[in-house]
Design brief:
The chain is α/β, with parallel strands linked by helices. The protein is built from 28 helices and nine strands. The protein has a nine-stranded mixed β-sheet with strand order 4-3-5-2-6-1-7-8-9, sandwiched between helices. β3 and β4 form a beta hairpin. α1 runs antiparallel to α2.
C-alpha cells in the first residue's frame, strides 16, 4: 500500500465517521472541515517558546520578508501564511465572521498591528501572498508557548492550532525539558504516538550557544546530538537541527546593495576589521568614511555578529561571487539542512501526513463523543492503524537519516532502498530497472529477506535496531507477496471481458468507501487540491455530546548522500491531550 493508497483508506474512514455522526451537526461539520483540508496544501505549524525566532525562520524558509519581526514577543494571534495570486489579508473572528483587509502590498507594519489584537477579537489572520515558496505548503505562526496570549486563552487553544496542522516545526533557543513535555503532551493520542513522523525540532539560535563565536555551531551540534538520543524526544520526533535563523533570513533576502557593502568591509585591513567586530557598538559607531554608519547598522541588524564574521571571512578567502557567497552562507547557517529535512520529511511525505491528520480527526471524535454502535468504527480505526506499515517505514527512514539508527554502510544503504527512500515501486526498492522480469524481482526480494533474517538474530543489535530490522523484514515480505500476486493478476486481466458481463456484477460489490464518498471526493486529484482560506477550520470542535517549499540546489548535500548510498553495494476537540482524558 503506497502513501496515496493509505490516504485513500484514511479518507474513506473519515467519510464513514462523518456519515455515522450526520445527526450531530457540529460534529459532522467539524469532520467535513477536516475532510476538505485533505485536498488543501500541507499545513506546517511553526511553534515554540517566546522569542525563539519563529517569524525570522518563516521568512528564511519562504525566501521573503512576510512575517514581521520585533525585539519583543508581540504575536498574539495565530497567523496563516498561504499562497494566493495576489496579496490579501483576511481576519477571522471568534464568531466565524471573515473580514477582507484591502491591500496592494503586504506591509509588515500592517500585519504586525493585526497580530497585536487580542485572541478574543481575532481568532486568526490569513496572509495570502504570491510567494513561490508557499505554493506547496501553508505555514502557521503560533503565539509563543509561554506567551500572554496562550496564558489568556489556555494551552488548549494552542493545542487546537497544532491539531489543525499536518506537521510541526518547533523552535527553541535551547531544548529544555518544558519543550519536550509540551510536545509530548500534544502527541498524547494513540495515532500521534503510533506515527511520530510529523515533528522537527529546530535549535533556532544556534549562534548564541555558549559564549557565541566561531565555535557556537559546533557546540550546538554536540547538544543536538545528545538530545537526538533522548528517549522522550524520540517518541515524537526524529530530527533536531541547529540553525542560525537570522543569518538564513538575511541571506535568503540579501540585496545587491548589501553584497556591495559587505565587499567594501572585506577590503578593510585585518586590524581595522578585527577592531570593528569586537562589539556591536564599535561596528556601528566607528568612524569609517567608506562605509557609512547607517549602512553598518543595517548590516548588523540583518546579519548579526556571527553572520557578519562568516560573510567577511568568506569574502576575504576568495568567495566573491554573490551566488557562491549565498550558497556558502546558507550552508553555514544550517538552513540548507533544515530546507532539505522539511522537504524530505514533510513535503515528499505529505500523503502519509494527511492520512495521519485524517486518523487523528477520527480518533478525536470517537474519544470525545462515543455513542452506541461506535465499536465498528473503532475496530476499523484500530485495523488501519495496525496495518499502516507505510508509517513504520517513514519513521525508520527518519531515524536512519537523523542517525538515531545506524547499520553498517552496505546495510544502511539497502535498508533505505527497501524502505522506499529512492522510490516505492518494487523495481526501485530492489534496485532494478523497469524491464526486470517478475521472477527476477521475486528472487531478489527473497534474497533480501534472507539477508535481513540473519540480522534479526544478530546478538549485537539492541532493542531499537531489532525493531528496525523487523520493519525492513516486513517490507521484504510485502515485496514477495506483491510479486507472487502478479501472475494471478495478469491471468485475470487476460480473461475475455465477455466472461464477466457488467450485468452480472452486483451493485453491492462496490467498495464501501465508494458508496459513501461525496461528489467532491471523487474529483480528479489536481482538481481536488484547490487552495482555499481555512475558514471552515475556524470552528472549534464541540466538546463531547506545486512549487515546493524550497527551491533546492541542483545537487543538495543530502541528495548527493542518498544518491551515493543508492549506488552502494547491497549487503474539534480543543486539544489531543484534552480528549485523551475523556
Amino acid at each position: 500500500m503506497t502513501g496515496e493508497a493509505l490516504l485513500d483508506r484514511a479518507r474513506a474512514l473519515l467519510i464513514r465517521t462523518m456519515t455515522f455522526y450526520r445527526d450531530d451537526p457540529r460534529t459532522s461539520t467539524w469532520l467535513r472541515g477536516r475532510l476538505e483540508r485533505l485536498d488543501q496544501p500541507l499545513r506546517i505549524a511553526v511553534s515554540g517558546r517566546v522569542k525563539a525566532g519563529k517569524s525570522t525562520l518563516i521568512n528564511a524558509l519562504v525566501g521573503a520578508e512576510l512575517a514581521p519581526t520585533d525585539a519583543e514577543e508581540r504575536t498574539q494571534v495565530s497567523t496563516f501564511y498561504q499562497y494566493g495570486p495576489e496579496p490579501k489579508i483576511l481576519i477571522h473572528t471568534p464568531h466565524g465572521a471573515v473580514q477582507n483587509v484591502p491591500v496592494s502590498t503586504l506591509d509588515a507594519g500592517t500585519i504586525r498591528d493585526l497580530q497585536h489584537w487580542r485572541p478574543d477579537e481575532v481568532s486568526r489572520l490569513v496572509i495570502e501572498s504570491p510567494t513561490p515558496g508557499l505554493q506547496a505548503i501553508t505555514l502557521i505562526e503560533t503565539p509563543g508557548v509561554a506567551s500572554a496570549a496562550v496564558q489568556e486563552t489556555g494551552r488548549s487553544a494552542l493545542a487546537q492550532i497544532l491539531s489543525e496542522a499536518d506537521a510541526v516545526l518547533y523552535l527553541t533557543r535551547y531544548p529544555r525539558q518544558t519543550d519536550l513535555q509540551f510536545l509530548q503532551s500534544v502527541n498524547e493520542l494513540q495515532t500521534a504516538r503510533s506515527v511520530p513522523i510529523s515533528t522537527i525540532v529546530a535549535f533556532s539560535r544556534a549562534d548564541e550557544t555558549g559564549s557565541g563565536g566561531p565555535e557556537a555551531l559546533q557546540a550546538a551540534e554536540r547538544i543536538a546530538e545528545r538530545y537526538r538520543n533522548d528517549p522522550t524526544l524520540r517518541s515524537f520526533a526524529q530530527h533536531l537541527i541547529p540553525v542560525v535563523g537570522l543569518l538564513g533570513q538575511a541571506v535568503a533576502t540579501m540585496t545587491d546593495e548589501e553584497f556591495t557593502a559587505l565587499g567594501n568591509l572585506a577590503r578593510l585591513s585585518q586590524n581595522d576589521l578585527e577592531a570593528l567586530l569586537l562589539s556591536a557598538d564599535r561596528f556601528i559607531n566607528s568612524k569609517i568614511e567608506s562605509i557609512p554608519g547607517t549602512i553598518r547598522q543595517q548590516l548588523f541588524e540583518r546579519f548579526g555578529q556571527f553572520g557578519l564574521e562568516r560573510a567577511l571571512t568568506l569574502l576575504r578567502s576568495g568567495t566573491t561571487e554573490p551566488k557562491k557567497l549565498r550558497s556558502a552562507l546558507l550552508e553555514e547557517s544550517g538552513l540548507n539542512s533544515l530546507h532539505e529535512t522539511v522537504h524530505q520529511q514533510f513535503v515528499e511525505r505529505q500523503d502519509a501526513l494527511r492520512a495521519r491528520s485524517a486518523m487523528l480527526a477520527v480518533d478525536m471524535v470517537l474519544r470525545a463523543n462515543p455513542r452506541p454502535g461506535v465499536q465498528q468504527l473503532r475496530g476499523e480505526f484500530e485495523r488501519l492503524l495496525a496495518n499502516a506499515h507505510e508509517w513504520n517505514e517513514l519513521r525508520l527512514l527518519s531515524e536512519l537519516d537523523s542517525g538515531q539508527v545506524r547499520f553498517a554502510r552496505p546495510l544502511q544503504a539497502e535498508a533505505k532502498r527497501l524502505l522506499g527512500a529512492f522510490g516505492t515501486s518494487p523495481q526501485e526498492r530492489l534496485g532494478r530497472d523497469e524491464t526486470t522480469l517478475t521472477a527476477d524481482l521475486a528472487g531478489e526480494a527473497a534474497a533480501a529477506l534472507a539477508r535481513w533474517r540473519v540480522q534479526s538474530v544478530n546478538p549485537l543489535h539492541d532493542r531499537i535496531h531489532r525493531e528496525a530490522v523487523r520493519t525492513v523484514l516486513r517490507s521484504c515480505e510485502r515485496l514477495i507477496v506483491n510479486q507472487a500476486a502478479q501472475p494471478a493478476q495478469a491471468a485475470q486481466a487476460a480473461q475475455p471481458h465477455a466472461a464477466q458481463p457488467h450485468a452480472a456484477q452486483p451493485h453491492a460489490a462496490q467498495p464501501q468507501a465508494a458508496q459513501h464518498q461525496p461528489a467532491q471526493a471523487a474529483q480528479p486529484q489536481q482538481g481536488r487540491r484547490a487552495r482555499s482560506a481555512p475558514s471552515q477550520d475556524a470552528q472549534s470542535y464541540p466538546r463531547p455530546g506545486q512549487t515546493q517549499i524550497v527551491q533546492p540546489r541542483s545537487e543538495p548535500r543530502q541528495g548527493r548522500r542518498r544518491r551515493e548510498e543508492h549506488q552502494a553495494p547491497q549487503g474539534g476537540p480543543d486539544s489531543p491531550g484534552a480528549h485523551s482524558r475523556h
